[in-house]
Amino acid sequence: MGGNMMSVHDDDVSLVLSNPSYISDSLHQSLALNYTNYFSGINYAFVTYSHTFNKIGSFAANIQYLNYGSFQETDIYGNVLGKFNAYDMAVVLGWGRELHPGFTIGANAKFIYSDMYTEHSTGVAVDLAASYYNDDKYFSTTFLVRNAGRQLVPYTNGNIEPLPFDVQLGLSKRLMHVPLRFSFLFHHLYKWDIRYQDASDIDVDPLTGEIIEENKLSAFSDKLMRHVVIGAELSPSRSFSLRVGYNYQRRQEMVVPTKLSTVGFSWGFGFRLKKLYFSYSRSAYHLAGSPNVITLTTNIGDFIK
Questions:
Q1: Which of 65, 160, 173, 206 is the most exposed place for a label (fewest CB within 10 A)?
Q2: Where are the domains of the chain?
Q3: How many separate helices (H) and strands (E) can be counted in the chain?
Q4: Contacts for 86 with CB less than 8 Å, ≥ 6 apart
Q5: What is the mean pLDDT of residues 139-147?
């Protein structure tokens, strides 16, 4: 659906990694397995499990793993010395609570570890979320502060690097008489201009050599749309859904102007097979390729009498 649609209130345990305020007793014993076939032999996966404890609350545990594959090590003369691997991982513990019917809060605590052969780094971060939903009107919204934290142990260069901090607002609304839901994600709300400034994109007058100023309305619209991700989901039945999305910022940064492509667009579907729910999506990042994302969710309690 174009990106992180964390505002969708769907009792989907795979969403609590991006929205801990949806951790609740309705997800008790729910399990999600995800695998993403990324670029150039890079593989990403996560597993999420939620459990509710009486008198304590509802929790979710998650492990993320990103493997960059195998690399060949050589010396400065090109002699092969062997092979090595590189990976990143994060262990996440989430908690959620309902403060009032329709209003929930939650938090994720993350421990992050990076292994780049001879380079290692660790960090900690938290996500803080608050959500409101009205299932009778098919509406939900979430405010999220994401990846607030810091790097604890830097790589050997000694520089403390920032985490991908973000402030997001998500909205989701399903039509009353049509099984069609629209979702909107507004990201990087703490900073207005998030455009990547590329010197080659500057227009210069060929006669005078002066820089051609960008139209103010076009500049405003461009800056605004880079904060917006749009998604839609059509569910003709309770067991099948079709999904599409559009990420304006991704398209502006990754598209090749001389090539016709679907960069920035994504699509997918989901269907239920008895006690299992299968989801597939494909996102166009660049002409070089598009990641395939597969997610399987279930409730372990359904298999236990």
A1: 206
A2: 13-303
A3: 2, 14
A4: 67, 68, 69, 71, 115, 116, 117
A5: 95
- Residue 290 zone, left/alpha/beta (φ > 0; ψ -120 to 50; rest): beta
The count of residues in the chain is 305
* Alpha carbon separation from 115 to 43, 44, 69, 90, 227 (Å, rounded): 15, 15, 12, 12, 32
Name the CATH topology of 13-303.
Porin (2.40.160)
**Whether pLDDT at 55 is above 90:** no
C-alpha Rg value of the chain to the nearest Å? 22
Burial 168-206 (b: 16+ CB within 10 A, else e): bbbebbbeeeeeebebbbebeeeeeeeeeeeeeeeeeee
DSSP 3-state of 233: strand
293 neighbors 283 (Cβ within 8 angstroms): yes
Q: How far apart are the first and last CA of the chain?
A: 36
pLDDT band at 2 (very low <50, low <70, confident <90, very high): low
* Residue that has been written with the tokens 């969710």 in this structure: 297
Q: Which residues pair with 146 in a beta bridge?
A: 166
Query: What CA–CA distance (Å, rounded) separates 273 from 283?
Result: 24
CB-based contacts of 300: which residues, under 8 Å, 6+ apart? 29, 30, 31
